[in-house]
Amino acid sequence: MAISIHSDDLPADIDLGTAVAIDTEAMGLKTHRDRLCVVQLSAGDGNAHLVKINHPQAPSPNLAALLADSGTTKLFHFARFDLAALTHYVGPVNGLVYCTKIASKLARTYTDRHGLKDLCNELLGTDISKAQQSSDWGRAELTKAQAEYAASDVLYLHQIRDRLDAMLAREGRTELAAACFDFLHHRVRLDLAGFDGLDIFHH
Ligand code: MN
User: Which end of the chain is more exposed for a tag (fewer CB within 10 A), N or C?
Assistant: First the structure.
């Protein structure tokens, strides 16, 4: 396993394949208030690339091009947050989106534990630490513990997707999951337009 840390953008020549796992770390949970600090990416090959956003005003053209590429599937855990942060701070995200949290909620109806740690534990038998989740991601240099935590948030998403896809197929919910993933783009537009605290489908 290798962790590469890049400043403000991905290298131009990087190839992360046709399905890339992506996660983000920000100063907090309010997208418009809390700036994007780190974008983590993995091709599912056991290696992680961390883009440390040191200059939020500076463009990240290589990262933006990857996000905009409609031929690249993007895997997330709780895509709703990451899509809002990436759209707001980097640029439009195109192409198929897969969210392991939504897939888990549709497939694993026997539990209400849908955190990434829970999925790693049950589906892969892997223990990941969440100790750095609430740390200062805006600091100039990431600590070793932060870098390892950030990497662990993208390293297992491909394997988790494979397990959840098998469960979704078994339960006859593959198409419903795909429809929910498609809708995420619209849900994120609502969030960024100020409807984030409101379920417009609720009575
Ligand atoms: Mn994370």
Answer: C
